Amino acid sequence: MQMKGVEVFDFTLKHLPLEFKKILEFASLKKEELSKLYFHQANTFLLSYLEEKLGVQGKLPNNMKNFGNTSSNSIPLLISDTKDQDYKNVMLMGFGVGFSIGTCILENLDCSCSLIYKNNELEKR
């Protein structure tokens, strides 16, 4: 099996901003009303690019340095790993596999516990 990484990356750069705009219009929200954006943790460069391109500085958490690209687990892991619990309007966006994008906005997301790792041991906090 072989992934065409450049094509997937180009697809992502082109289509994610369009999907971002579409979901905001669908939800009748402005980007300023979003408290957090939890995007698939593909790579740090892409996340930094999207944060700048979408104009959402400080709202797009990144845990790549801790976990890397964890595939389909990246968004739930990111939510659990985030220390800031401001979840009024949260956008989730997964992308990549099969040139697909999935996006939703959740209101008042309640995560009762988050994860912390110490000495490679998982603890709930």
Structure description:
- Helix content is 37%, strand content 21%.
- It has 125 residues and is of the alpha+beta class.
- The chain has a single domain, classed as Thiolase/Chalcone synthase (Peroxisomal Thiolase, Chain A, domain 1).
- Helix 1 (5-27) packs parallel to helix 2 (44-54).
- The longest helix has 23 residues, at 5-27.
Share in β-strands = 15-25%
The shape is globular
* Count of individual beta strands: 5
- Share of helix among residues? 25-40%
CATH topology assignment:
Peroxisomal Thiolase, Chain A, domain 1
User: Structural class of the secondary elements?
Assistant: alpha+beta
Please, what is the average pLDDT?
A: 81
Distance between the termini: 39 Å
In CATH terms, the superfamily is Thiolase/Chalcone synthase
**What is the CATH architecture term?**
3-Layer(aba) Sandwich
- Return the string of H and E elements: HEHHHEEEE
Biggest sheet: strand arrangement? 1-2-3
